[in-house]
Write a structure and sequence with these properties.
Blueprint (H helix, E strand, L loop, with lengths): L12 E4 L1 H4 L13 H14 L3 E3 L7 H8 L5 E6 L10 H16 L4 E6 L7 H16 L3 E7 L16 E5 L6 H4 L2 H7 L3 E5 L22 H14 L3 H10 L6 E5 L3 H15 L13 H4 L9
Parallel strand pairs: 1-2, 1-8, 2-3, 3-4, 4-5, 5-6, 6-7, 7-8
């Protein structure tokens, strides 16, 4: 059973920015926010106490948009594109080029961290070359930490904990595998940070039952149990989900994305409310990849 702790500060919320570069999420009805809305979100986030942004080279125009908004005061985490199609001899040059491009687009002098967007880039000789390139840039003061983004606990099987100072992974009331597998505990004991994303399962857990896409009908009993638990808690779905994730002892940061300043205000309130409640949801975990892993979502499922 996942362990829980007392409340975390708002600085443990990381503002995800994929929405600034792409129309993202199963519940997204408004598309990408324009530059004005994006500035409003960033201003409110910083005023509220958030200090870290999560982006990636593969998030469409996200890095460029952030650079236009001005983000020098933020700690920024980005992710390097997959090296799968890069020749071994070109890996280090490719990594350096990618990081410098991110720095240029973001208009900042240094990054808080660079993560491998493809977990396979941290394994074997490819992983050694990737880490060597980032280590050199770290020595030059261009980046602070090195890490990896993963999807499932097994993605960490060949990655030693001390090689990833930050691991970003999905975690929510339905997808609890990363903690229940023991991977998160091992990371924490090694001094690493676990940044959890998909706390709302791309918005699915925030939707009314009647609004959920038909593809999820086969998991109606599981989702109904979640809905009932939320009702019994007296919390909003957002507060229930955020509170459950944030109170985990092995979670250091929660990555959340929004489409408007109003959504951000609601999430900040939900974060505070959720952490003040005693949320028991460890029994809601599922291993049905068709439900918990968006890579398996299909329109005809």
């Amino acid at each position: 059973m996942p362990s829980e702790i007392s409340t975390k500060p708002l600085s443990s919320l990381v503002l995800g920015t994929v929405q600034f570069g792409l129309a993202y999420g199963v519940a997204n009805r408004t598309g990408r926010p324009d530059i004005g809305r994006t500035r409003d979100i960033l201003d409110l986030a910083y005023t509220s106490g958030l200090r870290t942004l999560d982006t990636a080279a593969m998030y469409g125009d996200s890095e460029r948009v952030l650079g236009e908004c001005g983000v020098n005061q933020w700690s920024i985490i980005t992710k390097a594109p997959s090296l799968e199609r890069i020749d071994d001899a070109e890996i280090e040059r490719s990594v350096r080029t990618s990081v410098h491009r991110s720095l240029d687009l973001l208009r900042v002098d240094a990054l808080h961290a660079v993560l491998a967007h493809d977990s396979r880039d941290m394994v074997g000789d490819r992983g050694r070359r990737f880490r060597d390139a980032l280590a050199a840039m770290r020595a030059d003061g261009l980046i602070g930490r090195i890490g990896v983004s993963v999807y499932r606990p097994e993605d960490m099987a060949e990655i030693e904990d001390d090689r990833s100072q930050i691991v970003q992974a999905p975690f929510n009331v339905l997808d609890q595998g990363f903690i229940q597998s023991g991977r998160a505990d091992s990371l924490r004991r090694g001094g690493g940070e676990l940044h959890v994303r998909s706390v709302f399962l791309q918005g699915l857990l925030l939707m009314n039952a009647s609004d959920r896409p038909a593809r999820f009908a086969r998991w109606a009993p599981t989702l109904s149990r979640f809905d009932e638990r939320v009702r019994d808690s007296g919390l909003t779905p957002a507060a229930f989900c955020l509170g459950f994730a944030a109170r985990q002892a092995d979670v250091t940061h929660c990555v959340v994305g929004v489409d408007s300043a109003q959504q951000l205000s609601e999430l900040v309130a939900a974060f505070n409310a959720g952490q003040s409640a005693d949320i028991g949801a460890s029994d809601l975990g599922s291993d049905e990849l068709g439900l918990i892993d968006p890579r398996h979502w299909k329109d005809d499922a």
